Amino acid sequence: MAIYNQIGQTYNTTRHADPRIVQRLMFELNIDTPATILDIGAGTGNYSYELANMGYQVIALEPSEVMRAQGKQHRNVIWKEGVAESIPLEDKSIDGIICTLASHHFQNLTLCFSEMKRVLKENGRIVIFTLDPRLCAADCWLLDYFKPLLKDAYKIHPPVEVLSRLVEDQITRPVKIKAYPLPYDLVDQFFFAGWRKPELYLNKDFQEGTSPLAKGRKEVVYVCLNKLNTDLENGDWHKKYGNILKLTEYECGHFFLIV
Q1: How far apart are CA 224 and CA 213, in angstroms?
Q2: What is the pLDDT, as a whole number, of residue 2?
């Protein structure tokens, strides 16, 4: 929890709801307003706020006090302290659930999905936006420069087939997986969002707003960033990876899981 209180101090500087992700969430939810949507791991409420703006009633669930203190306020948003393993809501009280890039922070996925099922109405939808780093393009430069930091990603992000099976076992419904290659101009600056902007990783605000850099060991982070900075200055990065600058989207292993 301490690290997310730390990240939360500057979270709103670089993390904003990307309108394309918002549209996909709405499309996959396929629920009419003014349905009640639970946003699990809401952070500072960037996606909660956008859904509320569209007429949904949103319950933003977030364990970090610092995140909640900066939470976006809206007449259609109710903030609650809590974790996914113990959702402080009544049985079958929610029309839909979203979770954007937060499921890897859950301590017990089995319990989390069981709780989602408990609070969800019979025909409600669950839409989880997450990633499996094993699906990232093998030649991605981020795997080259940040490999020591991304080792943890393989521990906290289960393989997509494992995650899918776990959800199906708990929710007892078929799961759909829809890949989401990342656009080059994402507004929400999570770790892989800068795949076409290597200079972004040298930005202090960006570093403080993304967990691999914010919670990585300082000496390891320094070595990774120093190598990137050196190679950008001497041209080595562009010689090896410059062709990526021509692309408009890139496969970094992100996907929507829909139940």
Answers
A1: 10
A2: 46
Cβ contacts of residue 26 below 8 Å, gap of 6+? 51, 54
Strand partners, 131: 254
Is residue 167 within 8 Å of 106, Cβ to Cβ?
Answer: no
Closest by CA position to 37, among listed 104, 103, 150, 127: 127
- Asked whether 29 and 96 are in contact (CB, 8 A), the reply is yes
- Spell out, as residue ranges, where the chain has pLDDT lower than 50: 2-3, 5, 7-8
* Rounded-to-integer distance, Cα 226 and Cα 228, Å: 5
Residues 6+ apart with CB under 8 A from 119: 38, 87, 89, 90, 91, 92, 93, 94, 97
Give residue 111's identity as a one-letter amino acid code.
Answer: L
d(CA 155, CA 245): 30
> Which pLDDT tens digit goes with each residue over 209-254?
888 898 889 999 999 999 999 999 999 999 999 999 999 999 999 9
